[in-house]
Design goal:
The complex is a heterodimer of chains A (72) and B (291).
Chain A: H1 6-41, H2 55-59, H3 61-66
Chain B: H1 2-52, H2 67-100, H3 106-128, H4 142-197, H5 205-211, E1 222-223, E2 229-231, H6 236-273, H7 280-285
Classes of the chains: A mainly alpha (72), B mainly alpha (291).
Chain lengths: 72, 291
Amino acid sequence: MSTSAPVVDAQDQSISSPVSARALWLGGVLVLSLLLYYFIGIDQGATSLFGQDSHIHEFVHDARHFLGFPCH
Amino acid sequence: MESRFVFRALGVGALGGLLAFVFARIFAEPFIQNAIDYEAGRDAAQNELDRAAGLTVGGEEAEIFSRGLQRNLGIATGMVLFGLAMAGLFVVAYLVVSRRFPGIRPRVLAALLAAACFLGFYAVPFVKYPANPPAVGHGETIGDRSAVYLAMVGISVVALILAVVAGYHLARRFGTWYGSLLAALGFVVVISVAMALLPALGHFPLNESQYGRHAAETPQPLLDPDGKIVYPGFPADVLFKFRLYSLIAQMIMWATIGLAFGALAERVTARAKAPASASRPAAVVTPSPAS
């Protein structure tokens, strides 16, 4: 509200914001990578998120074998 | 700051997957086709036997994607997306370790981490559960196989992380050389126990009741009622080549990620440090702990 505050605010932000941004980046990348790993390697084999469909499985079929994942 | 490393990592991950695909397309696909042809021939022979025995013969499964699509666009998509996923996990590890140990030179850390990821995510699990070509693996055990494979991957990644942390502490007490050796020994012991406890693929109850006791699910020769071989077992050379090329493809992918990301990370790190340092010459002269 007053004009004397911004100095403190700016300092607070420069400390708190990079930490949460970093956590967001690390967490986001970690979750998305694991999800991608699951869909390339596992989904529509042992478990299936989209029911009885095997389009992903059949499309990346050769890669799934070649990357070492169990495949039908 | 993190975004710069993440986007570069994803770029080199896609590149690594693409290079591994090119290798796979040239070297592995002929053997994948051999395996699929073997499976087709074996199914035909099995149908003959069933018909002779008066059993009803099941119809063929409908193909969703043609072989042409699977062996080109399909495997390319799979390899590139796998490269992206692995690079994502890699860069998370890189960002965590590089903040904790800023003294390690970026390209050295990147190379070491890529080697660790190669070991943890692929090479160590491969020792117990190696990659199998089409025709090797029974459809009804896919659930069991997925569970033990993921367990093996999880154990090897966690054990590797613990071994590195333990090695760091042991190094203070026993010196770098013996501390590292002790940590490596601990890793080998833990992994050996895990491998001994996890079942061989052929030993699943489903497999033993239906196919007899074999170490793996590799197709055995097909016998007629008189015990005569009417179709051979899975060709050993195809199995070997497929596994060897699978291993090489992963090495190509991880080498690309480790080395290319290392080069990019050096530049990003140098640029980030440059404005902070008092003068340019000082930044150049600063000795790096490793080279």
